């Protein structure tokens, strides 16, 4: 079979080179999945959905005109929201190319992403050109990338890649490096008679997937047992199993919406002191995998919920819808955001009642709403404290990324939080002491329970205002030994 001129060119790059030539040979680096742990294509797609959702309707027309055209349009509409300064770069690859640059080797970026994005990354890394990326007419991947590099570097080049699309480029390269390469792909490369030097260990998806589910947040879903706990003497243990299954299903929906929220907040999270370590923001979890995981959890949970109780399915559908509305837009508006959070806690209680067909009383819902409204405001105070401690006073008037509050609003948020805390305690005392539906057989037990609750709530606010609370208040309470003790005492009082 006759070889083409390009194949002869590619073969020549494998010829034995002198040590001096190898040291000066250009090092070509792929970007998506190699230099960074994420993919710019999906990054732009997420930003289009978040900031310009009308572009979803245009996607089908862009796809019909080819992948290169699609990448170009996505860059134009979503690229402005993806900053090269905060991308999840692989430290091993950055260190490797820095050492190569110090040795005098040219560092060249070559990616299937839009050429304008490639140039912005090169500018951020202070790399001189030429660099290569896709244009409107050419999707620079696989054999197209290999041919371009062979023409540009006839004396050979080394290449760092990560995916099966890079096999054609590895064939044309002198020394082949892998970053983020799976075990299966490595075996495939070896089967083709090539050697591959790993710069990073194989990717592990299971741990990032579990991390993205935020299973510790399932503690909030224990509220689903509230109605059962109140009515237990009347209904017995029969509905306990169904409520337990409901707890798991609600947790699946919550985890699914957490993943979607992280997808939409991926850029803002990278600018955050602690959220940048989340699975999606850090690039440990791929965007397509995360989206498939979220949708699967939500769909399966809704189908299973319908067979437990259609009303329960309807309630968690409302919970899911409100959560997604919060993630897309409502969390950007001051006061509206905390009302949404308080409503989501109330829906957890309503969901438990829907399973056993018992409607919660207005007293209970009022207490729950104001109680969690207060904690939601405490959460905002924690965020504002962190902002206050990390930026100059001149920037205190700037709103938090993705929020409607600035540091200057802190006093207002504290006042609102303490007022709603007092209101929730007021409802609790009236409900437990005067209502015919009282939880307690003795008013003294009711009073003691209220005192314990008041102490815990005021202590939480004390820590939040002082800046001694560095987590979400609910998550903090789960880890705080005194909160656990007070919760146990309150539970004992209810049982007694």
Automatic annotation (TrEMBL):
Keywords: Cell membrane, Membrane, Transmembrane, Transmembrane helix. It comes from Hyphomonas beringensis. It is a multi-pass membrane protein. It is found in: Membrane. This is Prenyltransferase. NCBIfam families: PRK08238.1. InterPro entries: HAD-like_sf, HAD_sf, UbiA_prenyltransferase, UbiA_sf. CDD domains: PT_UbiA_2 (cd13963). GO terms for cellular component: membrane. The chain crosses the membrane at residues 218-235, 241-260, 280-301, 307-329, 336-357, 363-382, 412-432, 444-462, 474-495. GO terms for molecular function: transferase activity, transferring alkyl or aryl (other than methyl) groups. The keyword Membrane applies. The keyword Transmembrane applies.
């Amino acid at each position: 079979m006759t070889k083409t001129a390009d194949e002869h060119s590619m073969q020549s790059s494998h010829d034995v080179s002198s040590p001096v030539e190898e040291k000066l040979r250009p090092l070509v680096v792929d970007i998506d999945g190699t230099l960074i742990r994420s993919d710019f294509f999906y990054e732009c797609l997420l930003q289009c959905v978040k900031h310009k959702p009308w572009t979803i309707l245009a996607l089908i027309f862009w796809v019909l005109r080819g992948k290169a055209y699609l990448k170009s349009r996505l860059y134009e509409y979503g690229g402005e929201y993806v900053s090269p300064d905060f991308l999840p770069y692989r430290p091993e690859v950055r260190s490797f190319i820095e050492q190569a640059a110090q040795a005098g080797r040219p560092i060249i970026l070559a990616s299937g992403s839009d050429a304008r994005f490639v140039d912005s990354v090169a500018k951020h890394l202070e790399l001189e050109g030429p660099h290569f990326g896709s244009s409107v007419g050419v999707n620079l991947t696989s054999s197209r990338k290999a041919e371009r590099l062979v023409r540009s570097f006839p004396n050979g080049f080394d290449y760092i890649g990560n995916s099966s699309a890079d096999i054609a480029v590895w064939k044309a390269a002198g020394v082949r490096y892998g970053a983020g390469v799976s075990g299966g792909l490595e075996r495939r490369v070896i089967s083709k008679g090539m050697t591959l030097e790993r710069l990073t260990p194989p990717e592990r998806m299971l741990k990032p997937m579990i991390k993205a589910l935020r299973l510790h947040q399932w503690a909030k879903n224990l509220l689903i047992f509230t109605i059962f706990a109140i009515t237990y003497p009347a209904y017995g243990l029969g509905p306990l199993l169904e409520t337990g299954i409901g707890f798991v299903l609600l947790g699946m929906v919550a985890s699914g919406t957490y993943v979607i929220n992280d997808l939409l907040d991926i850029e803002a999270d990278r600018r955050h002191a602690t959220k940048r370590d989340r699975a999606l923001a850090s690039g440990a979890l791929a965007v397509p995998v995360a989206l498939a995981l979220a949708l699967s959890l939500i769909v399966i949970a809704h189908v299973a919920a319908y067979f437990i109780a259609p009303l329960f399915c309807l309630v968690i559908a409302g919970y899911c819808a409100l959560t997604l509305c919060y993630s897309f837009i409502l969390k950007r508006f001051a006061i509206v955001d905390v009302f949404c959070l308080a409503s989501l806690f109330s829906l957890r209680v309503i969901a438990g009642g829907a399973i056993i067909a018992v409607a919660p009383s207005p007293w209970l819902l009022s207490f729950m709403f104001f109680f969690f409204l207060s904690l939601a405001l405490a959460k905002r105070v924690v965020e504002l404290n962190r902002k206050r401690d990390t930026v100059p006073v001149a920037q205190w008037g700037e709103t938090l990324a993705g929020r409607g509050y600035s540091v200057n609003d802190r006093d207002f948020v504290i006042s609102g939080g303490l007022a709603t805390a007092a209101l929730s305690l007021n409802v609790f005392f009236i409900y437990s002491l005067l209502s015919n539906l009282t939880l307690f057989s003795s008013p003294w037990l009711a009073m003691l329970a209220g005192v314990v609750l008041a102490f815990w709530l005021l202590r939480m606010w004390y820590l939040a205002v002082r800046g001694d609370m560095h987590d979400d208040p609910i998550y903090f309470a789960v880890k705080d030994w005194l909160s656990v003790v007070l919760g146990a005492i309150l539970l004992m009082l209810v049982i007694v």
